[in-house]
Design brief:
The chain is built from 4 helices and 7 strands. The chain is of the alpha/beta class. It has a single domain (2-165), classed as Ribonuclease Inhibitor (Leucine-rich repeat, LRR (right-handed beta-alpha superhelix)). It has a 7-stranded parallel sheet. The longest helix has 17 residues, at 2-18.
Amino acid sequence: MAEEVSRVAQRCEEAKQSLILDLSHCELMSIPEAIFFILKNVELKEVNLSHNSIKKLPNKLSTKFSTITSLDLSHNKLTLLPDSLNQLVNCVSLNLGSNQFTQLPDVLLTMPLMETLDFGHNLVTNLDTSKLSQGPALQTIILTGNPLDDDCKVILESIVRVKIVL
């Protein structure tokens, strides 16, 4: 436990210079409150929280790290996202692959600059395909590895405005 705490503290200090916070593989079950304090005046560009056991995101993530352009939350245990995620107004790339989502959260389609969404290897069987073109800047959605039903796949393959990777 002490080793993980030390690793998180060290990576927060490194982020002050690089503007990239990499807390991947830190055995996190939640996002420590302390990182918001340690990095309160740092305008991060990227945040990597992949390969942890995070089940829930705090609303603070969006408000305190509103400058990020890339967010990697892959390989966690997420099932829901807070509506506040749309406050990540500069985010162009979001990786939510390999979590436990059963549906595509509506908030993802309200993020104004998001171009690429990796939603692969979740538990999605069906999507409201009419909503997929609502993302104002959305160019690519990766859905590889989801157990999508055949009817949904047929509809997804006919979508032209957004590149769908099955």
